[in-house]
Design a protein that fits this description.
With 338 residues, the chain is α+β, with helices and mostly antiparallel strands. The chain has helices spanning 92-105, 127-142, 149-164, 170-177, 211-224, 226-248, 252-269, 274-285, 311-320; strands spanning 19-30, 40-57, 61-66, 71-77, 110-117, 180-184, 189-193, 200-204, 290-294, 301-305, 324-326, 336-337. A hairpin with a 4-residue loop joins strand 6 and strand 7. Helix 1 packs parallel to helix 2 (127-142), helix 2 crosses helix 4 and helix 3 (149-164) packs antiparallel against helix 4. The structure holds (R)-mevalonate (MEV). (R)-mevalonate binds next to helix 5.
Length: 338
């Protein structure tokens, strides 16, 4: 008898195109906290990137894989986006982005979303803002919706405000526009500076800071000491404008000196820590032009401007003082389709 073999073909899910986008992390150079109160700041995008990919699915499920923040295999139905479902902390910005995008433009199919980061969310490089910008840009691409940079900023800013209630939006501007930017609260001004790479050394304090707590702490300080807090913010405004001038002239020495002044003002606000002060002092002693904390304070990173001759000594001093030198390049490119 002749045996008949029947090949069993497993039904295959149709393969849909994947839309991949990457957005850079950021560092605050001058003006943190003041920028929450209508003042300017200076920021630079760094060459550590967050990658976000979006792939349509032939069902109505949103699947999220974000291993960097401990999320694997998270699933939810598309039509539950508008309900206040319990979401894991690491997926809050992704889900809020999907919700806002879908409210504005609609979303008609399920999606598989994956994120991959070149930097740890511990460093304070702005992983939430990079992920928000990345997913919104990828969704616009796949839905064939033209969003210019300003519209992308506004939608991202609304999303971040929905999730954390506070924030100036400076990190979103860095993720979208890249480069080095003069920025005023909520994107009232977003001016790119033509300065190339900065001679910066970045030291991580080993402590992850919680930006919302620090922003609230400064808000309390301002409520109790209004005139003093406003005077500090006014001085920060003045030095940020001065720093912009020096950076544009590539006068790193003068800009470095202003970092020291900015650090003193941040200490008055009470957001520096002993560890940050030790790292900052070690950089100054090793011959840096100047140094300060970068971001909300309470931990995360310190930054310092250095001459090329002193770079090695400054890096060693930061390491010896218990910091971790992070190798990053500044002035990196903004969001882009991969
Ligand atoms: C945090 O990195 C910088 C702050 O100015 C907050 C903000 O601008 O959103 C403290």
């Amino acid at each position: 008898m002749v045996e008949r073999r029947i090949a069993v073909v497993e039904p295959k899910e149709p393969e849909f195109r994947r839309f991949k986008v990457s957005a850079p992390g950021k560092l605050m150079l001058f003006g943190e906290h003041a920028v929450v109160y209508g003042r300017p700041c200076l920021i630079t995008a760094v060459d550590q990137r967050m990658e976000v990919s979006v792939q349509p699915k032939p069902n109505d499920l949103i699947e999220i894989g974000a291993p960097g923040v401990g999320i694997t295999g998270f699933k939810m139905e598309l039509d539950r986006l508008n309900e206040s479902v319990e979401t894991p902390a690491g997926a809050r910005f992704l889900i809020a982005s999907l919700r806002n995008f879908s409210k504005k433009f609609g979303l008609s199919s399920g999606l598989k979303i994956e994120t991959k980061s070149e930097f740890s969310s511990e460093f304070g490089f702005g992983s939430s803002s990079a992920v928000t910008v990345g997913i919104l840009k990828a969704l616009a691409e796949f839905s064939e919706i033209k969003l210019d940079d300003r519209q992308l900023f506004d939608l991202s800013y609304q999303t971040v405000r929905d999730v954390q209630g506070v924030g100036s939006g400076f990190d979103l501007a860095a993720a979208i526009f890249g480069g080095t930017i003069y920025f005023v609260t909520g994107g009232k001004e977003i001016n790119s500076l033509d300065i190339g790479e900065l001679p910066l050394v970045v030291g991580y304090s080993g402590i992850k800071a919680d930006t919302s707590i620090l922003v609230r702490q400064v808000a309390d300080f301002r409520q109790q000491n209004f005139a003093e807090a406003e005077a500090v913010f006014d001085q920060m405004t003045f030095l940020t404008q001065e720093a912009r001038r020096f950076l544009e002239k590539r006068d790193w020495e003068k800009a470095g000196q202003l970092m020291d002044t900015n650090q003193n003002l941040l200490e008055l606000l009470g957001v520096s820590t002993r560890k940050l002060s030790v790292l900052i002092e070690s950089a100054r002693k090793a011959g840096a032009y100047g140094a300060k904390l970068s971001g909300a304070g309470g931990g995360d990173c310190m930054i310092t401007l250095v001459s090329e001759e002193k770079r090695g000594e400054v890096e060693k001093a930061i390491g010896d003082a218990g910091g971790k030198v992070l190798k990053v390049k500044t002035n990196a490119r903004g969001v882009k389709i991969e």
